[in-house]
Specification:
Chain lengths: 235, 321
């Protein structure tokens, strides 16, 4: 039985699926799950009875800095799953997902996105006929998963990255240098269909933060990152 | 660095259960004019149940070739996997029954060097192997009815529209597909290439016909195979139109023509197919022994044309229900 930490930020005063996500992830029979959710209010901080809310803040606030606050003891867990509040996670997802990332030895991974999802980078779309793909890209959301031995390379997240744009082009270089594998799991997808990316924060601000980050940190180009290195066919 | 020199061009070969044909395709890749470090071959096996993997292991040794596998999911999904697996900035999509000419990859590469337009695609030319070119059906579908190839309508260097984005022999920048559109895996019956071409139109897609980029189709199709292909084409055209319900797509797919033809002629379907099949058998046997006269060929062509059109109309009408 692995120890799993789920960390996420939810928007407290707009429609969200966090109330479905929390019980779905807790329903695992194979792992011990701890959840730490941060409520982000656009207006004054209020009360919202979402279980496992450990922090309430008034936004806008940089997501990855907030996450750092609840990941300080992340190395006490075997897996850390970072989740947004606008995904549909199927029942029993956690058990099947972790079985696959363990089987394919992914230190950093994410579920593929169902094809009805909002998708910016086409490589994350669910590929039919595959269990998983070893890739050079794992997007910064809406869900990603870090194995304990990869935590020192990724966490705490850089504090000046705002919404995290650009991290996904840095992470693969760091992990590859350490001989770690990253991948996308097609057989345990999630739907990212509640709201389109960049609806509730400033695109230009996030873009500028990305440029600053990539200017100073070695990273892959988009063509280098959007690569499948191996495919693992469904039986 | 994890990987060595980045190749300049990738041949993406998608295949299923064509182990017996792959030696000839691989032989063509072995003979490419480009040095091996300048290209790569990505083979995506779409769930073959035959000896495809064994053939690739035996004959791919020494080629800059990597094999990716997926459970049978269709050519659109396979091509997407191939594009995502490629390292090279230019990708050439190929069929598994076409043998590439030795200069194929170099010709595509040069065409992209000549024009750096990121939205330019290069349509190569497929001719029939002499062993199958004289077969009545193959002659009809490539020269008369042009249901399979219509190269005779194009001029070298001609700029064509999205309908020429034909995945059996086309190249483009990998970047174009990564950033602006991959194939729709839901279109499993076909038409996924033209549908992608349609989506790439707003990105400025231009397809340039380059007849010196050549490959040779060496697998003859039977009459029943072509009927099946035509029905699949009708189905896929309906799905293409359902996804992009515009007047242009409706017209290209001949939705109204097919639906009304099926309503009018559907009752005659079996009779039309039986007659065309019988003529095909007569013509095939005769072409082996002695040439048939021109009037028979004209009757034959009319029968093929009607049969394949009605098959397409049937597929489309069934999909529309």
């Amino acid at each position: 039985m692995a120890k799993v930490l789920v960390a996420g930020v939810y928007l407290a005063d707009v429609p969200t699926w966090v109330t479905d996500i929390v019980p779905t992830l807790s329903a695992t029979t194979q792992h011990s799950v701890t959840q730490r959710w941060i409520a982000l209010w656009r207006g004054p901080v209020g009360i919202r009875p979402v279980p496992d809310t450990v922090l309430s803040v008034q936004g806008p606030a940089p997501k990855f800095e907030l996450l750092n606050q609840v990941l300080q003891d992340a190395d006490a867990f075997d897996w850390v799953i970072v989740a947004d509040d606008d995904v549909i996670i199927p029942a029993s997802w956690l058990d099947s997902y972790l079985a696959l990332v363990d089987r394919f030895d992914f230190a950093l991974s994410q579920p593929a996105r169902t094809r009805d999802s909002f998708i910016d980078h086409r490589i994350v779309a669910q590929a039919p006929g595959l269990l998983a793909r070893r890739t050079r890209f794992v997007e910064i959301g809406p869900v990603f998963c870090i194995r304990r031995d990869a935590l020192p390379l990724l966490v705490p997240f850089e504090t000046d990255v705002g919404m995290g744009w650009g991290l996904d082009f840095i992470w693969p270089m760091r992990l590859e240098k350490s001989g770690m594998r990253i991948g996308i799991v097609d057989a345990a997808p999630v739907a990212h269909s509640l709201r389109k990316q960049v609806q509730l924060y400033e695109h230009s601000e996030a873009h500028q933060a990305r440029l600053r980050l990539l200017d100073r940190v070695p990273h892959l180009s988009r063509s280098e990152a959007f690569r499948v290195l191996e495919s693992y066919p469904d039986a | 660095m994890l990987e060595g020199t980045v190749p300049e061009i990738a041949a993406i070969l998608t295949t299923r259960d064509r182990g017996q044909h792959l030696p000839r395709v691989l032989a063509g890749l072995w003979r490419q004019s480009l040095a091996f470090e300048r290209f790569e071959v990505i083979v995506v096996d779409d769930g073959s149940a035959d000896d495809t993997i064994a053939v690739l292991e035996a004959l791919g040794q020494g080629l800059p070739l990597r094999v990716f596998r997926q459970k049978a999911s269709g050519m659109a999904a396979a091509r997407n996997l191939g594009v995502l697996a490629a390292r090279a900035p230019i990708v050439v999509l190929m069929d598994d029954d076409d043998a590439p000419d030795p200069w194929l990859l170099e010709t595509h590469l040069n065409a992209h060097w000549r024009e750096s337009d990121p939205a330019m695609a290069v349509l190569g030319h497929i001719s029939l192997d002499p062993t199958i070119a004289a077969l009545p059906l193959m002659r009809h579908v490539t020269e008369v009815g042009c249901q399979l190839f219509a190269y005779g309508q194009f001029r070298p260097g001609q700029v064509l529209d999205y309908t020429a984005f034909r995945s059996e022999h086309i190249s483009c920048k990998r970047y174009l597909l990564l950033e602006h559109g991959l194939f729709d895996p839901d279109l499993t019956a076909g038409c996924e290439d033209i549908e992608l071409g349609w989506r790439l139109r707003p990105r400025g897609l231009r397809v340039i016909y380059e007849p010196t980029a050549r490959s040779v189709m060496f697998r003859a199709m039977t009459f029943d195979e072509f009927c099946h292909r035509s029905m699949q084409q009708g189905r896929s055209q309906w799905h293409f139109h359902a996804k992009h319900a515009t007047r242009q797509v409706r017209s290209y797919c001949e939705i109204d023509t097919c639906l009304s033809a099926w309503e009018r002629e559907g009752a005659r379907f079996e009779e039309v197919i039986a007659r065309a099949r019988s003529l095909d058998e007569t013509a095939s046997n005769a072409s082996r022994d002695m040439p048939l006269d021109g009037s028979f060929a004209a009757i034959q062509d009319a029968a093929y044309r009607e049969a394949f059109f009605l098959c397409r109309a049937k597929g489309l009408a069934e999909a529309s229900r």
